Amino acid sequence: MKTFLAVTGSFLLLSGCSSSEEQLVKNAEKIHNDILTVDTHCDTPMNMVESGFDLGQRHDFGCVDFPRMKEGGLWAEFFAVFIGQGLRNDSAYNLVYKDALNVFDAIHKNIDKNSSVAEIAYTPDDAYRIKKEGKIAAFIGLENGYPVGKDITRLKQFSDLGARYITLCHSLNNDICDSSTDPKGPEHNGLSEFGIEVVKEMNRLGMMVDVSHISDKSFYDVIKISKVPVIASHSSCRSLCSSPRNLTDDMLLALKNNGGVIQICILSDYIKTPEPNPELDAMIKELRSSYGDFNKLTADQKKSYRAERWKIQEKYKKLATVQDVVDHIDHVVQVIGINYVGIGTDFDGGGGVDGCRSVAQMKNITIELLRRGYSKSDIEKIWGGNIMRVFREAEKISDNV
Asked: Would you call 255 helix, strand, or coil by DSSP?
């Protein structure tokens, strides 16, 4: 099978490539111009808070900025307010609550600074309007409900600041639910009593409930309790890659019955079970040793560390491919249909595969979809239609809860 290479957002045909392959590139370009393309998860705001990162400037590290979004034909991005899990007491809750507010503020300031090319979106209608104006729609999601603490009124404040989904937990258990990856195992056996109230309040507010990162039992609890279709903002298929972060086929079927959507995460280790890579491990270990405790670094040192880590991973990491990503999309379509799958890259949080290492290369996914016979209508659903359907359902049901 003939393939494409993408370099800094451009698509280079390999020698011997047929005119039909050239047509695939042209068709992908046209599709991205015509439709609303949405990525439901990136962690780029971490850069904004710590280093004064400007989304309006093209960068030679990281995955997301507005110039590269334009190159890749990505019209809408959910920027994650990510707060890593820590201590669970009143003092810690107050600190991480303030940290979350600082990230919200950094996102808003970055968008305001670049108002000629981007705008905060609060609704699906906002996104379609902003795209029609030739600008980028910037949505916000909260990754990890940890900053909520035990104060459910904070949900309304986060919603008012623009959060349109909340990933209930991250890599460890919190007061809302159990995580899929906490080494200590389950704490609540799914959703906690507080977590049940959180899901109900999110339904009332019209916030999408994000089931990525949560344990299998937590997932089924959410499906049972939520009156609104749910999303997995950045997850993939466990049948193809055994990570507990991925959804089983039974979970996919439950998601379909709920009316929700799984946004395929292109983080390589969730797409293809990683092979041992001692050279990469040694390089990362040496880098960490040279910088010391990350939490004690200055903002400039953290920026430098991330840039060096990025270069090491670019050189040494054995990545899954765009073809592997589309295998996951194919699998979802085969198991539950075209109406329940989308894309959530996890860029700047580890996401990236060979052929799609930044937003500048997003069209390579579309080219592969076209190569496999997906229609423009199918691709429109995958790239935004399905997530916008769930988003509208959340809005609609909130009006009646």
From this structure: helix
Note whether residue 290 is domain-resident. no
Residues of the chain predicted below pLDDT 70: 1-18, 295, 399-401
pLDDT of amino acid 16 = 45
E-strand ranges in 222-295 read 231-235, 261-264
Where in the sequence is the domain holding 80, given as residue range(s)? Answer: 18-275+318-398
pLDDT at 318: 81
pLDDT at 8: 35
- List the one residue out of 206, 118, 210, 228 whose CA is nearest residue 155: 206
Name residue 210's beta-bridge partners: 167, 231
The residues, any chain, with a CB within 8 Å of residue 316's CB and separated by 6 or more, are 277, 279, 280, 283
* Residue 118, pLDDT score: 98
Helix axes 322-336 and 249-258, enclosed angle (nearest 10): 60
CATH assignment at residue 145: 3.20.20.140
Cα dist. 135→66, 70, 117, 280 in Å?
10, 9, 5, 38
CB 265 within 8 A of CB 347: no
Q: pTM to 2 decimals? A: 0.89
> Which pLDDT score, from 0 to 100, does residue 401 have?
56
Structural domain contains residue 286: no
List, for residues 124-156, the tens digit of each pLDDT value: 999 999 999 999 999 999 999 999 999 999 999
Asked if residue 313 belongs to a domain, the reply is no
- Residue 112 has a CB neighbour count (10 Å cut-off) of 11
Whether 310 is covered by a domain: the verdict is no
Q: H-helix or E-strand containing 252?
A: helix 249-258
CA atoms of 205 and 5, how far apart (whole Å): 44
Total count of domains within the chain: 1
